[in-house]
Amino acid sequence: MLRPATPADFGFIRSLVQSPDYALYLTDEDEAALQTYATEPESRLLIWQTDRLDQAGFALYCQVGHRSKTLELRRLALTELGRGNGVAFVKALVDHGFDQLGAEKIWLDTSENNLRAQKVYGQVGFTLEGRLRLHDYCPPLERNFDTLLYGLLRRERS
Question: What tens digit of pLDDT does each residue of 10-24 get?
């Protein structure tokens, strides 16, 4: 289940982003930025809940309500990696984006180094649409890396 994030969730979100599993891939933003995402009409900051966990993951959508009906899935992270939850999580996000937010296309990007994410996006049905060469700088690695762009159209979803 997905629910809107509240200020009580901000510590959880920041702890995931700061964890070694995500520090190379996600930007840590302060509580003021998270509050903006949680309240502005163009974004949705969501918490994923499972039968076992009240906070199993989080995601951030941007471009909500854009006239193109293109929705950006800007950030997402899970509490437990390597347990096979990635596909279920991303499918829940895709369903929410198409069914609740009215998207015709959902797009996202990931680092060339994030092989786990690339695998999950492919399993859910996303298509690799492009590569931005040496596009982003990663401070922990002290180098630039390629950014991969993925997209999924409503009519392509499984």
Answer: 999 999 999 988 888
Q: Name the maximum alpha-carbon separation found in the chain.
A: 40
Burial 62-87 (b: 16+ CB within 10 A, else e): bbbeeeeeebbbbbbbbbeeeeebbe
Say what percent of the chain tops pLDDT 90: 81
pTM exceeding the 0.85 threshold for the entire prediction: yes
| Long-range interactions of 118-124: CB distance < 8 A, separation 24+ | 118/148, 120/86, 120/87, 120/90, 121/90, 121/150, 123/87, 124/87, 124/90, 124/91, 124/94, 124/152, 124/158
How far is 26 from 19, CA to CA, in rounded Å? 10
